[in-house]
Amino acid sequence: MSKSIVLQVAVPIPFRKLYDYLPNNNRAKSDYKIGARVNIPFGKSEKIGMIINITDHSTYPIEKLKPINELLDSSPIFEKEHLTWLKWISQYYHHPIGETIFTALPALLRKSEATASAIETHWRATELGKTINLDSLNRAKKQQQLLILLREQTDWISNKSANEQLSNWRPAAKALMEKNLVEQSQRIPNIKLATQTIIKAPELNEEQQEATNEVTHKIDHFSVFLLDGITGSGKTEVYFSCIEQVIKKNEQVLLLIPEIGLTPQLLKRFSQRFNCTISVLHSALNDSERYQIWKNAQNGQLQILIGTRSSIFTPFLNLGLIIIDEEHDLSFKQQDGLKYSARDVAITRAQKVNIPVILGSATPCLESLSNVKKGAYHHLKLRQRAGNAIAPRIDTIDLKGKELVNNFSSDLLKLIKQTLAKDEQVILFLNRRGFAPTMLCHECAWSAQCTRCDTYMTIHKKKHRLICHHCGSEKRIPQQCPSCSSIDLRPIGFGTERTEQALQDAFPDTEIIRIDRDTTSRKNAMRQLLEKIENNRSQILLGTQMLAKGHDFPNVTLVGILDADQGLFGTDMRSNERMAQLITQVAGRAGRGEKRGLVIIQTHHPDHPLLQTLINKGYGAFADNALRERQEAQLPPFSYTAMFRSEAPYADQNIRFLQEIKQICQSLNSNQSIELLGPIPSSMERKAGKYRAQLLLSSHSRKDLHHLLSGTLQQTETLKSAKRVRWSIDVDPQDMS
Ligand code: ADP
Ligand code: ZN
Ligand code: ZN
Fold this sequence. Notes:
Layout: E1 6-10, E2 19-21, E3 37-42, E4 45-55, E5 70-71, H1 80-92, H2 97-104, H3 107-110, H4 115-118, E6 122-125, H5 127-131, H6 141-151, E7 157-158, H7 159-165, H8 170-178, E8 182-185, H9 206-217, E9 223-229, H10 235-248, E10 252-256, H11 264-273, E11 278-281, H12 287-299, E12 304-307, E13 319-325, H13 342-353, E14 356-361, H14 366-373, E15 378-382, E16 393-398, E17 404-405, E18 408-409, H15 410-421, E19 425-429, E20 438-441, E21 458-460, E22 465-467, E23 474-476, E24 489-492, H16 496-506, E25 512-515, H17 525-534, E26 540-543, E27 556-561, H18 575-587, E28 598-603, H19 609-617, H20 619-633, E29 640-648, H21 651-668, E30 674-687, E31 690-699, H22 702-716, E32 726-731
Parallel strand pairs: 9-14, 9-15, 10-12, 10-13, 11-12, 13-14, 16-28, 19-26, 19-27, 25-26, 27-28
Antiparallel strand pairs: 1-2, 1-4, 3-4, 3-5, 6-7, 6-8, 17-18, 20-24, 21-22, 22-23, 29-31, 29-32, 30-31
Helix pairs in contact: 1-2, 1-13, 6-8, 9-10, 18-20, 19-20, 21-22
The protein binds adenosine-5'-diphosphate and zinc ion (2 copies).
């Protein structure tokens, strides 16, 4: 008997190793390929895994290894290069290899299904079927109906869509196929083919042209470009002209956008500019549609893919360019499971396949700006607004000692009135959804707290509910104080729902549009709301940070930031950066057209250095200052961090576990290059009924930090205290609270 091969399989479980299996005897050795999935016996059940390596030996006695149940793919799901990149991700984020690979797979492939069956069968009429006299099928009504249906289509239709239009059609399809009147195909349809008339690009201004030239000059090589341009400066046009170059070479483009950054406007602009296959991976797609897009990218049928964070894992036949729009956006960092940054892994991916990356933003993150200063990224600046638009004027309204009507100063109300009188539009920004952030009893000071979290519950008046925004707990709004039975229960503070009502009272003849997670949860709701603004049917747009992204409203000339104070004194070192980004992004919504815009910031702290710098010198100056402060304090990006987090039913279980981790770290920290901070309770210690704590590691040497993490993690899996908690490791954490 010839020596057996050993399959090293990555399994999606929280252990940092591969599992050895034997092939089963039904297949030739050569059928097993690295990157193919297998169904394996695992404990008492079975699991899907992926072959990562094929060898002829094992650390276990070969005769004790189990054979796999079934080989699921005849060709690899991931090419070697792609797998190498995924392995790097697993190492960098210190996340188990199996879970990493399965995060990168579309949902459909995480299940047992073979890839072939994942692709839906499609149908169309043959040439004969299109021309035959339908009367010849008078005695086979179902066949006749199906053929009529197929003849009405210009393209293939899927099983699913046939099901929707005709019941019990399959026997008819079979009969028609035997008569050569219809044909079937396992082909993957293109989800979206640009069909609109192509609009010619505007002539680029000098800065845009220069930026484009720099990128296209290096279009065949790895380079990172930070396209740093104020809102409205025409970054999207620069993307377009770079994309054009890539499409011309018959290569593919991946555009990553923030979670709520996909606007109908952006899509329309794409389809008007490119006469090629464009797909969008968005949350409304089902698993099969997602897989089909994935497959199209992999086999080269798809030329442009637009998608959020996880699209970065899509395999491409011939990727030529990655663009990350709004690169500073937090949604590019995954907060659970594999805690990757799509922006950062995009850069290593581009490096591996030797292509350029463009990071675009009006408010680049400090990490990227620091990389520019180090010379690692090329800085492309767009300083002027494109076309005829002029940058808005920014001013503050000092709220100190002023009487407020429902959170509005009389000055702001007056400005709103004037703007409406000119038939122009207003955007008001308040980053807090719901009616009011909490409810208070005026008799006894009882307040509505979440029983599962260390936080207050938000009043949602229309729903008659108190809702915790951290764990989702809900209850009815009480009629009486649960503590003293008083009926004098009052809302404290303002959310968007309450502000909308206040605005409606102040401007009864104006339609007010509110955009937040509550008003846009229904499918298409966002689009319908935005259309009202675009068509000028509504004049006041009120919303949370969902408004800050990408939308282009030329008739908006006044932007009001209702409460800037929330973000000025945050505890997280990044809260200033976020606030500056948010204010700048919201301000950028004003004056996108030819009329000059005005941005008004309501605050009790008009002299706060952050506001002063932003108003007088702009985001770039703010970022320079912030980077200087970070350097002095040796905070990221001037040091590297990782965070152990732990949650458990009792607080001391976390502390015990994290103390043990700390001791392991200390024993491995021979040259003292790692600083250990904690363990401490998280800033909201109890969330969804669990206590939470954290241990922060920081170092000047990324290498030392990662070396220590590897060593520590090897010992962690066997710790007894680890079994009582749910723990995770977050490399380059964005949220340090
Ligand atoms: P950004 O992405 O930087 O916010 P956009 O690319 O959306 O900017 O451009 C803002 C507006 O200016 C858009 O309406 C766009 O069509 C227009 N625009 C961009 N570049 C030019 C140009 N070179 N000439 C005329 N209009 C332009
Ligand atoms: Zn009370
Ligand atoms: Zn809660």
